[in-house]
Design brief:
69% helix, mainly alpha, rod-shaped
Length: 189
């Protein structure tokens, strides 16, 4: 504590010495009209120069204080704006989360249903395809249908009975009859 007071006293003494030196230098640079050339300034003249320098410094300090206060006011405005902006962003984020939940969840469910329907349709299409195995690659030639008709005629002796002049016919499945007839599907050749 005593050390701080000593430092403050030393600093004040240095400032006073600096002010007196500046006033003396100022008087030598710009001597008043009453000071003759080469003459030493009197104590009154030095005090007047110190007073003038002190007033100039005081004016500068006041101007700096005004500028600092203006900067503080600007900073408080910026701070208020940033707080308001942060609040708006927080509200918007919560709104986006709510909208995302209300839109994304039904869309995800609908997408899932559509994917299941596509998979089901693909599975049904695969199940309806005929799969013929055991042939060498490229045996069928350019006309696969003619090759299969020829192969079926050779492999199944009863098959020609079902074929008309135009080739093999189609087999249709019929659902259960209303009159209680058997559910066996008729085949057409």
């Amino acid at each position: 504590m005593g050390k701080d007071r000593a430092n403050k006293g030393t600093q004040q003494t240095r400032m006073d010495q600096y002010t007196v030196q500046n006033a003396g230098a100022s008087l030598q640079r710009d001597p008043p009209a009453t000071l003759e050339k080469g003459a030493e300034p009197t104590g009154v003249q030095i005090l007047a120069a110190i007073e003038s320098s002190s007033q100039a410094k005081q004016t500068q300090i006041v101007a700096i204080a005004v500028d600092v206060n203006l900067l503080r006011a600007d900073l408080s405005v910026v701070e208020e704006r940033s707080v308001a902006t942060e609040e708006k962003v927080t509200c918007m984020q919560s709104d986006v989360d709510i909208l995302k939940a209300s839109v994304a969840t039904p869309l995800e469910a609908q997408t899932r249903k559509l994917e299941e329907r596509v998979e089901d349709a693909e599975g049904r299409a695969r199940r309806c395809n005929l799969r013929v195995v055991g042939f060498s690659e490229g045996v069928e030639g350019a006309n696969v249908e003619a090759f299969l008709e020829d192969w079926v005629r050779k492999s199944l002796p009863a098959a020609p009975l079902c074929w008309g002049s135009g080739g093999p016919g189609w087999a249709f499945e019929w659902g259960p009859q209303q009159s209680g007839e058997p559910v066996n599907p008729p085949l057409r050749c």
